[in-house]
Amino acid sequence: MTSSDTRRIRSRRILILAGLAAVVLGISVLLGRYPGPSLTPLSAIENDALARDLIIHIRIPRVAAAFLLGAALSAAGAVFQTVFRNPLVDAGFLGVSQGAAFGASIAIVFASGNAWAIQGGAALFAFLGLGLSYALASRIRAGDDILRLVLAGIVVGAFYAAGTGIMKYVADPQKQLPDITYWMLGGLWGITGRDVLEMLPVTLLGLAYMMAVRWRLNLLAMKDETAFSMGASPGKERLAVLIVAVAVTAIGVAKAGQIAWVGLIVPHICRRFVGSEMRVLLPASILLGGIFVLVCDDLARTFLSGEIPLGILTSLLGTALFLALLLKRNIRGIG
Amino acid sequence: MIRLRGIWFSYNGKSDSVLCDVNLVLPPGTVSALVGPNGSGKTTLLHLLLGWLKPKEGEIRISDRPIALLPGRERSRLVGHVAPDEPAVLDLEVREYVSLGRTPHLGWFGKAQGDDDRAVQEALSVVDLLAKSAKPVRTLSTGERQLASIARALAQDPDLLLLDEPTSHLDLANTRRVLQVMRVLREKGKTIVLTTHDPNTASTLADTIILLKRGRVAASGTPAEVITGELLGAVYGVEIDVRTIDGRPFVLARI
After folding, report:
1. Among A3, A171, B45, B64, which is least packed by CB within 10 angstroms?
2. C-alpha angle with apex A104: A100 to A105, nearest 5 degrees?
3. How many CB atoms within 10 Å of residue A173?
4. If pLDDT is split at 50, 70 and 90, which confidence band does A241 have?
């Protein structure tokens, strides 16, 4: 098989994913428990004002948010795994997830659970996680740049986890503690059109930046001096793409709480079908990530009459898929 | 022509100089081997030639241009580098990996053209890895991985190729393959600087051997001038026998 054959096959697979994404998006908009517990018939959209309002004001924002969230988390996961040369990290790395959880729990305890404070706190401390990890890594004297960042990320993540523990301990057990727990389970039940508009600029610009530089990200998976020999500035380029990856993660986590496993598992599944080259892996991860979270959210809001927290479903499906890949020895880059 | 003038180097926060007053001239189309004990400054000197490290004092000029002042893209078209054990963690296929070498030649958004595909094909052909071009790099043997790294640097098409321990961890057959590739490159007019722990590898291939001891050039010249019992004995601190085969000196350490 020639290189152009391989390229053609991979391009076709990405087109198939794009088609699948369009189908899942369409079905998800029609899927719900009104007027019946299945797909809303097209006639109902014409004749039933409530069904129309429901689709425009509730389902479309939620479907858009789920797709954006999945796309952002998966793209960030693919970026983190590549630049850290480690297939077992995701965007929660470097204290980002733990920072978001800490920020949200502070807001729940000290700002009476104000939605803006929770989102702002989560985003702020997610970024602080990245900043602290970099600052700490510069003072560690062991290993190369990557190892120092990994070590610093572990320390910062553990520090934030302890902070979240303290917030849980001091939280009012009747109101605040359940709020913290519920936030950490993750979900999109309160998403509005305004939330989506707030997510859109950061997420779309972030994804566009990652797509534009994806051909250079392969270099960052190599030794720094090797990347440098091919014209890269590994330190600067790595920091720039990590800031962008954390930004899209932070805005998603701020809106939806902790949605685990997406950034880890989706790039692995994509590697099975399109390989590890970031030119194809990144768009595949964006599309499949969007589909994955959208399907999980569809289940979360329709499977039972009550809402299942989205984070529980992504974790359940994510671990099952990860186990399946492990048992088939299909986790690329391990062993 | 590559010129190193009065190079001094020490790592950040350390007062001990890793390299002291290194002056060298490396003519184009030649193979130079940096030889010396562990910690003598071979890899540091290679990283200075790459521009990855900056000398504390002195200047390195490649084709009469100071390497430290060249923009990344221009520098990477002049100088290529192969590290001893490049990671293949997120496993690319061999062709994808070799294609990374074309990065300095690509335009915005990294679109490859026909020239790029041809350069990759030729690089794979030189190292005899065409048949394995669709395999993941991680499935290659150590020797084949080293050849893939060399092919990646060849696809980059630099004037100066730096190789850090290109034959370490390789068996005899793979060492021979790597040395044959170096010969082909020299015939194509490339300038090669390599580091090696093995004076015999240097003697087999190099036009010039630069013997380093504690950051200083202890000797520099043809293999016959540098590979002598006295010089190597003084640098390594062991008794060494030197035999001549086909006009080239070879080393045997006495036990």
Report:
1. B64
2. 115
3. 9
4. very high
* Separation CA A224–CA A227 (nearest Å): 5
Burial class (CB in 10 A: 0-12, 13-18, 19+), A209: middle
Say which CATH class B2-253 falls into.
alpha beta
Residue A232 near chain B (CB below 8 Å): yes
Question: What is the average pLDDT score of chain B?
Answer: 90
Per the CB < 8 Å rule, is A229 touching B52? yes
CB atoms within 10 A of CB A329: 9
Residues of B in contact with A332 (CB under 8 A): 90-91, 136
Query: How far is the C-alpha of B244 from the C-alpha of B250, rounded, in Å?
Result: 6
Is the pLDDT assigned to residue B5 strictly greater than 90? Answer: yes
CA gap A134, A127 in Å, rounded: 11
Tokens found for residue A191: 């998403």
Q: Which two tokens stand for residue A36?
A: 């019946």
Q: Is the pLDDT of residue A1 over 60?
A: no
What does the pLDDT read at residue A335? 37
Distance from CA of B147 to the nearest CA of A (A): 15
| Residue from the list B50, B93, B120 with its beta carbon closest to the beta carbon of A225 | B50
**Residue A45 burial (CB count, 10 A):** 16
Q: Report d(CA A314, CA A294) in Å as an integer.
A: 10
Q: Give ipTM to 2 decimals.
A: 0.92
Dist. CA A42–CA B42, nearest whole Å: 73
Contacting residues for A126 by C-beta, under 8 A, at least 6 apart: A96, A97, A99, A100, A103, A246, A249, A250, A253, A254
Domain A10-327 has CATH 1.10.3470.10: yes
Instruction: Inspect the interface and report whether the beta carbons of B76 and A212 lie closer than 8 Å.
Output: no
Task: Report which of residues B214 and A91 the model is more confident about.
Answer: B214
Give backbone dihedrals phi and psi of A179, rounded to 5 degrees, phi first.
-65, -45
For the full predicted model, state whether its pTM sits above 0.90: no
Q: Is the pLDDT of residue A334 over 50?
A: no
What is d(CA A64, CA B251) in angstroms, rounded to the nearest whole number? 71
Q: Scanning the structure block, which residue is given the tokens 């697979």?
A: A13
Q: Where are the domains of chain B?
A: 2-253
Residue A168 CA, chain-centre distance (Å), reads 25
Per-residue model confidence (pLDDT) at position A83: 87
> Quick one: pLDDT at residue A332?
55
Instruction: Give residue A312's pLDDT band: very low, low, confident or very high (50, 70, 90).
Output: very high
Listed in sequence order, the DSSP H helices in A257-308 are 262-274, 278-302
Mean predicted confidence (pLDDT) in A122-145: 85
The pLDDT value recorded for residue B89 is: 53
Asked whether the CA dihedral B55, B153, A223, B213 is positive or negative, the reply is: negative
Whole-number Å distance between alpha carbons of B40 and B24 = 16
**A105 and chain B: CB distance < 8 Å anywhere?**
no
The residue to which tokens 């979360």 are assigned: A300
* CA-based nearest residue to A268, from A259, A287, A281: A281
- pLDDT reported for residue B192: 96
For chain A, the domains span 10-327
Cα gap A176→A113, rounded to integer Å: 8
